[in-house]
Every structure is written in C-alpha cells, then in structure tokens.
Amino acid sequence: MTPKQKLIQEYLEKYNGLPIHQIARRIWEDFPHLFNSVEHIRSNIRNNIGKNGKVSRQKRQAKINMENGIGQNNKDIIAKWGLVKSKSAKKETFKIPINFDKILWISDIHFPNHDEVALTTALEYGFNHGANCIIIGGDLLDNSPFTRFLWTCILIAALVYSAFS
Q1: Three-class DSSP category at 135
Q2: pLDDT tens, 81-136?
Q3: Does residue 79 surpass a pLDDT of 70?
Q4: How many Å apart are CA 118 and CA 85, to the nearest integer?
Q5: What is the C-alpha to C-alpha distance for residues 90 and 107, in angstroms, rounded to an integer?
Q6: Fewer Cβ neighbours under 10 Å: the N or C end of the chain?
Q7: Which of 32, 59, 56 is closest to 46 using CA atoms?
Q8: C-alpha to C-alpha distance for 31 and 39, rounded to whole angstroms
Q9: CA gap 61, 54 in Å, rounded
Q10: Is residue 161 predicted with pLDDT exceeding 80?
Q11: DSSP H helical segments within the chain, as ranges?
Q12: In Å, how far are 8, 9, 124 from 2, measured between CA atoms?
C-alpha cells in the first residue's frame, strides 16, 4: 500500500460515514501538496473502496490476492501451464533507497559480447545527467561459457562503480 493509499485509508476510518467528497476535501485541506486536486483525491478514494466499476474492482481484488499470496501456489494454475515446482527459496523484494532518485537503467548487456559503443554511450549519459544508481535489467552475462570472462566483468563493474561513486 502506498503512503497516499494509507493516508486515504486512515481518513476513511476516521470519517466513516461521511460522503466521499467531504472526506476528499478534508484530505485536501490537510495535505494539498500530495494531490493535484480534490477530484484527484475523490478518484483515489473511489478506487480505494472499489467504486470505480466492475473492472476496477476486479483489478483491485487481483492486486489484493497477489499481495496476500493467493494464487502464487495455486496447483490448478501450475498444472494448467505444466510448470515444475520451483526449488528456489522465496526472495525478499528489494526496495531502492529513496536517496537513489536518479536511476540509469541498462538492460541486456550480454558480457563478453556486449556492444561497447552502446554501453559506453549509456554510461556516459548517466554520468553526465547525475545518475546515482544503476539498475541492470535483463541479461548481464551472455549465454556463452562466461566463467573465463567473470573476472573481466567484475573489473568492469568495479570501474563503473568507482566512476559513479
């Protein structure tokens, strides 16, 4: 749940029974910097309580189910897709610290078969625009036998880290 959603939930509990518009006005009076308008807040409240129609309610219920873990180990779904039970342990979600607010996203580098010009251009762009965090999405290493290139990858990563530190 986002901070805005928590705030809306607190006001819904505090002013239970008041019309949505009045609750939205109270939030706007107390936190005008968080929202664009009273209508923006009212729309968020309606979304929060599932009053934006059938599709909205379905999306909200699906999100709640995923947050509660419903469906993640559903044997019917696993059987439908023919998936083999995973051997991996449940992983904790990593949250990027708030001070990393200028992110350079790079994906599919494929060391050692990377495109030097593209990668250098991306790193230079991030450096010149004040990136304070690099996220590598997709494939960092290529599918070739990369173990003999591992130290090269570690050295390049260390150089990039020192340039942005």
Answers
A1: strand
A2: 676 677 778 778 888 888 888 999 999 888 778 889 999 999 999 999 999 999 88
A3: no
A4: 38
A5: 24
A6: C
A7: 56
A8: 14
A9: 11
A10: no
A11: 3-14, 20-30, 38-48, 54-67, 75-81, 116-128, 150-164
A12: 10, 10, 34
The answer to whether the beta carbons of residues 136 and 107 sit under 8 Å apart is yes
* 131: CB partners within 8 A, 6+ apart: 102, 103, 104, 164
Closest CA to 164 of 131, 135, 140: 131
Say yes or no to pLDDT of 42 above 80.
yes
**What is the model's pLDDT at position 39?**
92
- Before 112, cis peptide (omega within 30)? yes
Note the pLDDT tens digit of each residue in 14-29: 988 889 999 999 999 9
Please say whether the beta carbons of 163 and 127 come within 8 A: yes
Instruction: Look at the block and give the residue holding tokens 């050295």.
Output: 155
